[in-house]
Specification:
The chain has helices at residues 2-17, 80-88, 97-107, 155-161, and strands at 23-28, 31-36, 41-45, 51-55, 64-69, 112-118, 121-127, 132-138, 145-150. The chain contains four helices and nine strands. The relative contact order is 0.16. It has a single domain, classed as Protein Transport Mog1p, Chain A (3-Layer(aba) Sandwich). The chain starts with a helix and ends in a 5-residue tail after the last helix. The protein is globular, with a radius of gyration of 18 Å. A hairpin with a 5-residue loop joins β3 and β4. It has 166 residues and is α+β, with helices and mostly antiparallel strands. The strands form two sheets. The protein has a seven-stranded antiparallel β-sheet, covered by helices on one side.
């Protein structure tokens, strides 16, 4: 009886902690992400950036969620976590001021921005009405910066992508 009770409890717990059944689990860079279900196509380009794209429309350039490993981000001489925090703050920074201002111009103009934090991960979001870019930064382990972009999801839907991280 005790074993049956433990089995029932263990069966219920994972369901309550996972994303909705309407989401598709994507494993990218040893991380779980949850994107909307039923993309028309998913493609992977194994270049240096390791680009993964899910497309939800037959129209070129419409309704896309893309994942990439950002190896060439100009962080103004700072680590990515310090750089993104400098971009989002108003104060002085140890990062190159031109790099910070350039990033702000490209990613913050007419966009909501902020940080979602969890454990050793920081998720920096820059969300506009027709384009959003989110960076997941890890300071422990491999110290990689992942970039997630979309041109059709709203803030709430984008946050659901990171359900296993928050």
């Amino acid at each position: 009886m005790k074993a049956l009770f433990i089995f029932v409890i263990m069966s219920i717990i994972p369901l309550s902690l996972s994303a909705s059944v309407n989401d598709l689990r994507i494993v990218y860079g040893a991380h779980d992400f949850y994107i909307p279900n039923s993309p028309s196509v998913i493609g992977y380009l194994g270049t240096d950036s390791e680009i993964l794209i899910a497309k939800y429309s037959d129209e070129p350039g419409k309704s896309i969620v893309g994942f990439s490993l950002d190896k060439e981000l100009n962080t103004g001489g700072c680590g990515p976590m310090v750089f993104f925090k400098a971009v989002l703050s108003e104060g002085e920074s140890e990062c190159d001021a031109e790099a910070v201002e350039s990033f702000r111009y490209v990613f913050m103009k007419n966009r909501d921005s902020g940080i979602w934090s969890s454990g050793n991960k920081e998720i920096f979001y820059f969300i506009g009405s027709n384009k959003a870019t989110v960076f997941l930064v890890e300071e422990d382990g491999d110290k990689k910066t992942y970039k997630i972009e979309t041109n059709f999801l709203n803030k709430k839907q984008i946050k659901k992508i990171f359900a296993s991280h928050l």
